[in-house]
Amino acid sequence: MKAVVTVMPKKSVLDPQGAAVAQAMDHLGLPHVGKVRVGRSIEIELPEGASEEKLHELCRDFLSNPVIEDYELEIR
Amino acid sequence: MKAVVTVMPKKSVLDPQGAAVAQAMDHLGLPHVGKVRVGRSIEIELPEGASEEKLHELCRDFLSNPVIEDYELEIR
Questions:
Q1: For residue range B28-74, what is the model confidence (pLDDT) as tens digits?
Q2: Which of A23, A48, B55, B72 has the fewest CB atoms within 10 Å of its CB?
Q3: A30-55: per-residue pLDDT in tens?
């Protein structure tokens, strides 16, 4: 089985990298770009039957910083 | 409209960050983790009717490094 974890900065948190990307896209010929947020995407190959609960625990405690980031876990 | 760009290291490229995550997950109680790859996820708010072609161009030339990374563009 495969898990895809997407970690994004919380909406309330300033994302300077996203702001820089938005500004650059404007300069590079795609005008009127709104908010941009830059996060991480992590693809994990897991053995069948791996504990989803443990996976959520690791997403929260290890793969993301819950103070400033939210994560989404998708099992494929 | 909203675009989500996922940029991942190519399968043929060594991903030391992914290898470190896999090893750490093993130590943290999720054994037998296979390959892990760490990439970026970029959410972009766009005006309606923004050029998808231009967006692909920026994904290729600006948001990713096509030598070592692949991107996926999803319009929502």
A1: 999 999 999 999 999 999 999 999 999 999 999 999 999 999 999 99
A2: A48
A3: 999 999 999 999 999 999 999 999 99
- Could A34 and B47 be called an inter-chain contact, meaning their C-beta atoms sit closer than 8 Å? yes
Report whether A46 contacts A3 (CB < 8 A): yes
pTM: 0.93
User: Do B4 and B41 meet the contact criterion of CB atoms below 8 Å apart?
Assistant: yes
Q: Are B63 and A21 in contact (CB under 8 A)?
A: yes
Is some CB atom of chain B closer than 8 A to the CB atom of A51?
A: yes
Using an 8 Å CB-CB cutoff, list chain B residues near A46: 30, 32-34
Q: Name the CATH superfamily housing domain A2-75.
A: Phosphoribosylformylglycinamidine synthase subunit PurS (3.30.1280.10)
Tokens encoding B38: 């760490």
The minimum CA-CA distance between A55 and chain B, rounded to whole Å, is 7
Supply B24's token pair. 């750490």
Domain ranges for chain A: 2-75
Q: Do B8 and A43 touch (CB under 8 A)?
A: yes
**Structure ipTM:** 0.92
Work out the minimum CA distance from B56 to partner chain A, whole angstroms: 11
